[in-house]
Amino acid sequence: MFKKILHPVDLNESLTEIKIRASFLYKMKAEDMVFFHVLNPGLGGHKHAESRLRHFQSALDEVGINVHYKVEEGHVASEITREAREQGADLIYIPARGRNFLMSSLLGSTTQDVVRLADSPVWVHKKRPDLRHEEQMHRIVFATDFQQAAEKCCQPVFFLGELVPELVVLHVGERAADPYSEQLRREHVNVKLEELKEQYSGYYRKVRQISRIGSPASHILDVVDEIQADAVILGRLNEPFPLHVMGSTCARVVSRVNSSVLLIP
Amino acid sequence: MFKDTVFVASLIIVAGFVLLGIFDQELLDSISTTIHGGIIANFGWAYLLVTFFFLVFCIVLALSKYGNIKLGKDEDRPEYTYFGWFSMLFAAGMGIGLIFWGVAEPLSHYMQPPEHIEKESGQAATFAMRYSFFHWGLHPWAVYIIMSMSIAYFSFRRDMPPLISSCFYPLLGDRIYGLPGKLIDILAVFATIFGIATSLGLGALQINSGLEHIYGLPATDTSTLLIILVTTMLFMISATVGLDKGIQTLSKSNMFLAFLLVVFMLVFGPTAYIMTVFTDTMGGYLSDVLEMSLTVNPFLGHEWYKDWTIFYWAWWIAWSPFVGIFVARISRGRTIREFISGALLVPTLLTFIWFAVFGGSSLYLELEAGAAVGGAVLDDVSTGLFAVFDHYPGSIILSNAAILLLVVFFVTSADSATFVLGIMTSRGSLNPSLGKKIVWGVTQSSVAAILLVSGGLVALQQMAITAALPFSFVLLLMCYNLWRGLSAEAKEGLNSRFSRR
Question: What is the C-alpha to C-alpha distance for residues B264 and B406, in angstroms, rounded to an integer?
């Protein structure tokens, strides 16, 4: 599924971290990996960057993934997404360093920009799964609105079944405007969730469903926190003009969740 | 929850305030003055902002794609003719107030405008007419429309009981049957009963001053009480007859009577002068409505705006649950566009004509004919109308007609109020039991009577207006809920997307 992976790296990262992540990606059946670094335009540093990436590359010989590297100049997020497109990467893998709230709201974050701009799936690796202690993931959440955006997540959800024992299918809906419509809506949601459960139960040891009412982003955050999920899978709506002033559900989840996020555009 | 929580809780609250009014009127006065003054001083700006927002919301909604949605099922047809509908709208929304203030308001503004305008000048007269139009024009109806349209939509189209709490289903879900919903409904009963009691009290006072003016009936407590007693009997009869025959017939005949009165005043008064005033004030209103909507003059003359504009806005908002439920009840089967354009424009236009005729002729008397009607209004606002009639041929007949109008508006207001209170306290039954109607009818009249005698009427009015503050939020949330309901319907059709398998 995710054979070719674009992995943007920071030159300050330690070799140990790079190794831990590579072995995690190897478990996710990655075959090719491109270390990618974007420099500020005009400031130079190409040689230093390349030698650092070469060092990473040689250290990973024993892991079993083909590693390449590339250095470019420009706007970081745009370069990452462009490179992913050109290389035909199956996944952009971003380890998210936890910047504090003030920093990220003032400076913006590259992760947020990549999430917004990417045309290929993005894995944002946050606190969980904590690779320093354990590589195994225990449970993941698939957030669905039963619409087009969620349908694109089907294949990745099947695929992750090989690595994760438990799947939680989460639907967050908007309350209908009267009790009768609300009852119909609930029945409809239950039928749909039951269908999804059946669809995925051959791939996971355990499948559960949860249905909530309210703001999607806050309920996703809530559920992920409650069941200590390792990752959450989301489909991104590709609206030409995003209508949400406070940012899309994806952006809000990515910025605040503790688990990893797999985003399917 | 008890079966009749809203009924019992509201009765207890009302009884509490009335007892306070009887036994310690000073305390009631000081409580109500403090709360009222505090709210007007601190939240006056908010009333202007929200009311203006409601007007914009109404216009946007009428012009939007939701305008074609019916307040009822798709196959429903309007239950009342345009004439019947407009008559009842008008009677419920303005009624007594218009007769009370038709002469008094323009003259009061003319005699006592805000500081930056010279008293008793031409400028003051223009200002007086423009602000009378403004206070009784589009804005109050926008407030009423938000309330009534939400109730009508959620009850007739989405089959919920016609209660204010029903409109909160998209936001609150099943909690509307719990404490939050009950609180909203109790607050509505509270505002309605106090609002209607003060209206009735003031109406009775004016009937009395009319009778004193014509027949020399002394304006004593006994005679006012007698008036309340007689009118109470009348509206109880109308209430037992029911909505279709009772209120509708009375409202229609009142419209007819009011129409006759206006035509008479127009023909036998300074016709050209009145029409000039009408045209000029219309122009001023149309060009200034945006500015007036948000004007509070914080640097000069702010007191005037607090006393008038902000007071009116609070009053319309506090009055909205009563008018809203009643208007919703009579508007089933009309589309949103028809409802908004009808309820926003027609009563406003009628009100403008009314003010142009009564305000215009009284300003004519004051400015051109040298009659001191302004002084009479300053002495006692309730006598202004009769003072103007004195300068017309057949003044006795006119005064009698005005008293009749007052009595009938009194009866229709009280009748529709008992009806609405009945609905609100029987969990939204559109046909509340006669027992409940009688309980509320007697309660509102006795509250009016008791406080008229003990002197707590103004305090009660101030208490009613305090309800405007929470109701501003209620109305804002209603806009949100209504929009949610309408957009859900536009997106997935009414229930069709979730059809059972």
Answer: 17
B430-439: average pLDDT: 85
Q: Name the pLDDT band for B501 (thresholds 50, 70, 90).
A: very low
Q: CB of B18 within 8 A of CB of B450?
A: yes
Does B489 contact chain A (CB < 8 Å)? yes
**B159 contact A CB<8A:** yes
User: Is A181–B498 a contact, with Cβ atoms under 8 angstroms apart?
Assistant: yes
* Helix or strand run (H / E) with residue A170: strand A166-173
Quote the minimal CA–CA distance from B456 to chain A in Å. Answer: 42
- Do B484 and A174 make contact, defined as CB atoms within 8 angstroms? yes
Domain of residue A173 covers: 139-264
**H or E stretch at B111:** helix B96-111
Q: What is the CATH number of the domain that holds A64?
A: 3.40.50.620
A206 lies in the same domain as A105: no
d(CA B54, CA B483): 13
Q: Using CB atoms, which residue from A177, A187, A213 is nearest to B500?
A: A187
Count of domains observed in chain A: 2
Q: Residue B501 falls within a domain, yes or no?
A: no
* Residues 174 through 193 of chain A touching chain B, CB cutoff 8 Å: 174-182, 184-185, 187-188, 191
B501 touches chain A (CB under 8 A): yes
Q: What is the ipTM of this complex?
A: 0.79
Q: Could you list the residue range(s) of the whole structural domain that residue B336 is in? A: 5-488
Using the Cβ of B491 and the Cβ atoms of chain A, whether some distance falls under 8 Å is answered with: no
Flag whether pLDDT at B411 surpasses 50: yes
Nearest CA distance, A53 vs chain B (angstrom): 51
Q: Give just the sign of the alpha carbon dihedral B216, B221, B227, B229.
A: negative
pLDDT value, residue A106:
58
Chain B CB contacts of A147 under 8 Å are: none
Give B72's DSSP letter.
S
Q: What is the DSSP string of B270-292?
A: -HHHHHHHHHHHHHHHHHHHHHH
CB nearest to B160's CB, from A174, A178, A191: A178
B182 lies in a domain?
yes
Query: Is the residue at A131 inside a domain?
Result: no
Domain with residue B26: its CATH number is: 1.20.1740.10
**Residue B276 Rama label (left phi>0; alpha psi -120 to 50; beta):** alpha
Q: What is the pLDDT of residue B52?
A: 97
User: Residue B381's pLDDT is what?
Assistant: 80
Q: What is the mean pLDDT of each run of 10 residues along chain A (265 residues)?
A: 89 85 88 90 85 88 84 90 93 77 62 86 88 84 87 89 93 90 92 93 93 91 93 80 63 86 90
Task: Examine residue A33 and state whether it is found in any structural domain, yes or no.
Answer: yes
Pair A93, A162 in one domain: no
Give A205: exposed, middle or buried? Use CB within 10 Å, 0-12, 13-18, 19+: exposed
Mean pLDDT confidence for B219-239: 86
74-103 in chain A: CB under 8 A from chain B: none
Most confident of the ranges A250-264, B146-160, B230-244: B146-160
| Dist. CA B80–CA B85, nearest whole Å | 6
The DSSP 8-state label assigned to residue A42 in this structure reads: T
Q: State the Cα–Cα distance between residues A70 and A108, nearest whole angstrom.
A: 24
Q: Please report how the helices B271-293 and B336-367 are oriented relative to each other, as an axis angle in degrees rounded to 10.
A: 120
